[in-house]
Each structure stands twice: as C-alpha cells, then as structure tokens.
C-alpha cells in the first residue's frame, strides 16, 4: 500500500511467507502434500498474520498492509486469489478479460451502480482500498478457478500499471508479437510514458502445451 506506513515491509513479508509455505509443500513426497489451493489459502492466512503481528509489536509499523494477487497452477487448472486492487487478467485468443475484482471503494460503488466508470476515474477516493493483507487479524481472499487452454496468457499487475493504461491499451500491447520479457518491458515503459506516478509491477505467465508455464517478471519502482 503505497501511501501507508511501511508498505514495502508488508509486501516483502507477504512474498517471503507465501514462497516459504508453497516451497515446503513442493518438497513433500508425492501424494503426501495438501491440495494446492488449500496450501495457498493457508499461506495467505499466514502472510496476513505475519504482517499484522509485526505491526502490533512495533508502533512505527502500525497500519501497514499490502495488496496481493496470486496465481497457482496444477496440470490444466489455475487458481487466482486476490486481496486489494492488484489485478489478474487473462488474454485468450486475442481477447483480454479482467479476472479479479478490485477491493476498492470506487470500484465497489461502480459495481453497485452508485458511480459511473468516468466518475470513479476522477474520484479523489480512488486510492481507498477496502481489503488489504495485514490490516486486520483475519482476511479472506477472493478465489477464481479457471480452466487452462494452451496459449492462455495471464497478467498479474499492480495498480501502478492499470491506472496509467486502459484495458484496450494493455490488450494491444499483449497481442503484439515477442517474448514475454519484451512484453513486460513494453507494459512498464508505456505506463511510465503515460505518467508513471506509482510503483509499476507486472508478471506474465503463459500456458504451454504440456501444462508448463513460462514466467517472466519485470518490475519498475518509483521512489
């Protein structure tokens, strides 16, 4: 959470805890590991507890939190989990679809029909999120179960990207030819040219024919 206390500490704790528990699962003997989705949910709960407890012990960290979007894959299945306004998109057959729903005040008002999309973009409250990791003792992520088709491309990104680029602009950049690494670079560069007013992070994951995933990460952080 860019404007909150110690957001960079919260995000680091979240990533470390998630990777620790998912790596521990992968190291277990075949057939002994808990279901992947269950482990992922438990990891999110553990990450939330780690952030919340750290903030309770140090008043200087009071109120710290982070958004999170997670993608886990197993064979031909994908689960996406999110908290906050970091997003996951899926590009299939050249069409971009937003998978996650933002946990933000203005987006919830739009979904309820109390605010138009244009009003949400101009609203001074657009930075207010309604759910974040580490800000309360218990947290529940949204979960999306998806089928996988070879060639599907998933974009996980922070709001630093989506506030600078519209969905049609993102789609146009993703359908262009080139390796995933170059596409990540184009997304970040385009967001910077459009303003670059916030941290910009994007991860691209592509489903391959034999249920493998090609993953590349490009991160741009403005201080």
Descriptive report:
The chain has helices spanning 7-26, 36-57, 105-111, 117-122, 159-162, 167-175, 180-193; strands at residues 68-74, 77-83, 87-92, 95-98, 142-147, 153-157, 200-207, 213-220. It is an alpha+beta fold and 223 residues long. It has one domain (7-220): PPM-type phosphatase domain (Phosphatase 2c, domain 1, 4-Layer Sandwich). A 5-stranded antiparallel sheet has the order 4-3-6-7-8. Strands 1-2-5 form a 3-stranded antiparallel sheet, with helices on one face.
Short overview:
The protein is α+β, with helices and mostly antiparallel strands and 223 residues long. The protein has helices at 7-26, 36-57, 105-111, 117-122, 159-162, 167-175, 180-193, and strands at residues 68-74, 77-83, 87-92, 95-98, 142-147, 153-157, 200-207, 213-220.
Helix-strand layout with pairing:
Layout: H1 7-26, H2 36-57, E1 68-74, E2 77-83, E3 87-92, E4 95-98, H3 105-111, H4 117-122, E5 142-147, E6 153-157, H5 159-162, H6 167-175, H7 180-193, E7 200-207, E8 213-220
Antiparallel strand pairs: 1-2, 2-5, 3-4, 3-6, 6-7, 7-8
Helix pairs in contact: 1-2
Notable characteristics:
223 residues, alpha+beta, 5-stranded antiparallel beta sheet, 8 strands, globular
User: At the third CATH level, what is the topology name?
Assistant: Phosphatase 2c, domain 1
**Morphology:** globular
Give the total of beta strands.
Answer: 8
Which sheet architecture does the biggest sheet show? 5 strands, antiparallel
Q: Give me the Rg, rounded.
A: 18 Å
